[in-house]
């Protein structure tokens, strides 16, 4: 029986009530008294030298308060990078300056050169047209391999070429891996592109800066997944504002998918300009602006080799990847192709030798950073594609080849430096096969063939590392921050609770699921628990939401704080009942003395904590409020098996997805309804990558599809109903809830099954030369592949 | 500036607008009704769908000046008179048809327009109708399911998908 409340219940989301009635409060809904508006004049060239900017005419336009250029930001810092990668020789990556407004050069289309602040947005925009700029267009570098040529134009004149780093993981594995390839019975090689994507949360970014002269306090309202991180980065590294004088508020946020993790120039600008002008300053991104100013995702070019012995056991994996950084290093960009990609290269398989090489490259394009899955989709895609190709070359069942090589004993230390604590890959594969009726596929294929369509079935596995992350480990790997999470649980006198969490909800439903956990622990109704997040002024220092970390790390902090509450409440209950603390039990909101009929209610104890007339005041303080910080001891490792069935129209190359099934092991589940929804959304983004989406740059560095007219977002009729299952449960062994995280799995696990299915369809139809098609599998690409 | 008067959710409202003022700007900035959202600038995303004289309209694609005397309904006007969620809104909550909530106003308004014309749409009809509404969170599964449920169709088989 499904539970009707607490952990494991599909509680309806309380946040829906405001979102369904138009009462959500997103950043663009915030308007402050006296607010001015900023318009950013952005470079329309990918690479240009800025000789002169004349703002004098614009300054005198109606409504203009001030025009800012790069010179106005010389006294403050640049946008910092939060991760330093060390290269194969032990040297730090090349790290360029990233000014708030461009100085000297513009380095990508969209790079902000000037900013006009005016009484209205229209006035600011009109005045921007009157700014006279003397720019020399420079040759742009767009292609990564071309960018590494000796005579390539340099994105950053002060750096030694366009190579950010050349990284090996693990360098000590290289010789043994090379030797394993020498000894291999079979080697399968695949070259592929994991194309550039745009995250595209439906809410464009917004920033509102405010300044209070009397207290010298700055406030930034922003569309962020992690307000404390923005406060730290912007305060300490850009503007020099101490944290106690800077408040960052991220209210309702309309989706993020990674792109709202990072600290952006527009946030620093609005905060800075508000103080300069003594006026609130607001910026609302248009969608067109979002395409050229939000960090993009993916953009890897990879060659992967898989070595097998004569019994088809995997013996080695060797990869070489070029990873596009774009024109500047976005906040976590260097970590994505390295520590979120290289450490996952073992996948679900016991391959003894693995060596990963990544070359990160600067180009005259929008910066690239984490997008849903971040590095792990890239690792999963190449591995699951090369395994499918190997199975075909060897004439073996791709499912059986995977099963033969599954890791089956845990904990398992991979050759790429992580230790999987638990998992059962055969269980999720069994569940998947039960869901998809593989035996019936041939009959379905024959039916499709009668209708003139080519049917294919693709299967793959995935594993990811999330619950990011142990601070000590990521510190060794170059992170310039800790990745713990925090929670304060405040119990009121009348028994209700407020949980203040450093996690941030922007669609994940924390206000509901987090309340379920706390209510379950105490045995009270969920409605007695309120979740507060998103404001540095009333939540403890937290690292925010990304990397499927909220429940595994933020939830664990909340559990620890609630445990402290319960321990203290038991002491109070023991006093009230004149019993030994060791004998006190808490069940369904009642404290009782074991073996007796004595009990006091939760509300009696909370009241006593705040009205301590009869209270052990010599032993414990009054009040009932506790804070906990939780730093995980390992990543969590969700895993699963996915399958996709497609029909290809041989006349047009159009791919139709007929069914999609996902069998996931997320460990324990708090709210199955929300988990289903997270998988649905992730799978849709993965299908979008597989079939529809790509940010396309021309050779001059122009993003040619920078709008919803041209960039193909998945729509309702591009996707089917999904079948999802998370009944296979191997609880995480190292966090108190046994949870692993579910936010990114769908986007990580789904692209390879779609591509495997299309290649399968073409192979079965006799197009045996087609072993791979690069994403997105548009009709033209599939049709061309069929033509040979 | 020209004054325009229209009925929004049953109440007469008026305001001064420029020739270029869009309906969505009139609602959000002029009237402070921020339930209607702006997700793009090419009339693709559908976050701003409202009803004008009973028909679904993208509020970013119509000028406020053209709507003198029009009857406009927005997401703020979709709840029942007693404040409880309307049938479509309730189905969205029951079936988890929203996550971040940003596309939701447009989805609900589009769904209402669809069900007015087609009281029992098929899955395919719903998916085709929603082509002008983009959601990045839900993968559409629970939106389609919620609309089917709101139209009185049995969705228990989909729940098992």
UniProtKB/TrEMBL annotation, chain A:
<dbReference type="Pfam" id="PF20256">
    <property type="entry name" value="MoCoBD_2"/>
</dbReference>
<dbReference type="InterPro" id="IPR016208">
    <property type="entry name" value="Ald_Oxase/xanthine_DH-like"/>
</dbReference>
<dbReference type="Pfam" id="PF01315">
    <property type="entry name" value="Ald_Xan_dh_C"/>
</dbReference>
<feature type="domain" description="Aldehyde oxidase/xanthine dehydrogenase a/b hammerhead">
    <location>
        <begin position="21"/>
        <end position="139"/>
    </location>
</feature>
<dbReference type="GO" id="GO:0016491">
    <property type="term" value="F:oxidoreductase activity"/>
</dbReference>
<keyword id="KW-0500">Molybdenum</keyword>
<dbReference type="InterPro" id="IPR000674">
    <property type="entry name" value="Ald_Oxase/Xan_DH_a/b"/>
</dbReference>
<protein>
    <submittedName>
        <fullName>Xanthine dehydrogenase family protein molybdopterin-binding subunit</fullName>
    </submittedName>
</protein>
<dbReference type="InterPro" id="IPR037165">
    <property type="entry name" value="AldOxase/xan_DH_Mopterin-bd_sf"/>
</dbReference>
<dbReference type="InterPro" id="IPR046867">
    <property type="entry name" value="AldOxase/xan_DH_MoCoBD2"/>
</dbReference>
<keyword id="KW-0560">Oxidoreductase</keyword>
<dbReference type="InterPro" id="IPR036856">
    <property type="entry name" value="Ald_Oxase/Xan_DH_a/b_sf"/>
</dbReference>
<dbReference type="InterPro" id="IPR008274">
    <property type="entry name" value="AldOxase/xan_DH_MoCoBD1"/>
</dbReference>
<dbReference type="GO" id="GO:0005506">
    <property type="term" value="F:iron ion binding"/>
</dbReference>
<dbReference type="Pfam" id="PF02738">
    <property type="entry name" value="MoCoBD_1"/>
</dbReference>
UniProtKB/TrEMBL annotation, chain B:
<keyword id="KW-0479">Metal-binding</keyword>
<dbReference type="InterPro" id="IPR002888">
    <property type="entry name" value="2Fe-2S-bd"/>
</dbReference>
<dbReference type="InterPro" id="IPR001041">
    <property type="entry name" value="2Fe-2S_ferredoxin-type"/>
</dbReference>
<dbReference type="GO" id="GO:0046872">
    <property type="term" value="F:metal ion binding"/>
</dbReference>
<dbReference type="Pfam" id="PF00111">
    <property type="entry name" value="Fer2"/>
</dbReference>
<dbReference type="InterPro" id="IPR036010">
    <property type="entry name" value="2Fe-2S_ferredoxin-like_sf"/>
</dbReference>
<keyword id="KW-0408">Iron</keyword>
<dbReference type="InterPro" id="IPR051452">
    <property type="entry name" value="Diverse_Oxidoreductases"/>
</dbReference>
<dbReference type="GO" id="GO:0016491">
    <property type="term" value="F:oxidoreductase activity"/>
</dbReference>
<dbReference type="InterPro" id="IPR012675">
    <property type="entry name" value="Beta-grasp_dom_sf"/>
</dbReference>
<protein>
    <submittedName>
        <fullName>(2Fe-2S)-binding protein</fullName>
    </submittedName>
</protein>
<feature type="domain" description="2Fe-2S ferredoxin-type">
    <location>
        <begin position="2"/>
        <end position="78"/>
    </location>
</feature>
<dbReference type="InterPro" id="IPR036884">
    <property type="entry name" value="2Fe-2S-bd_dom_sf"/>
</dbReference>
<keyword id="KW-0001">2Fe-2S</keyword>
<dbReference type="Pfam" id="PF01799">
    <property type="entry name" value="Fer2_2"/>
</dbReference>
<keyword id="KW-0560">Oxidoreductase</keyword>
<dbReference type="GO" id="GO:0051537">
    <property type="term" value="F:2 iron, 2 sulfur cluster binding"/>
</dbReference>
<keyword id="KW-0411">Iron-sulfur</keyword>
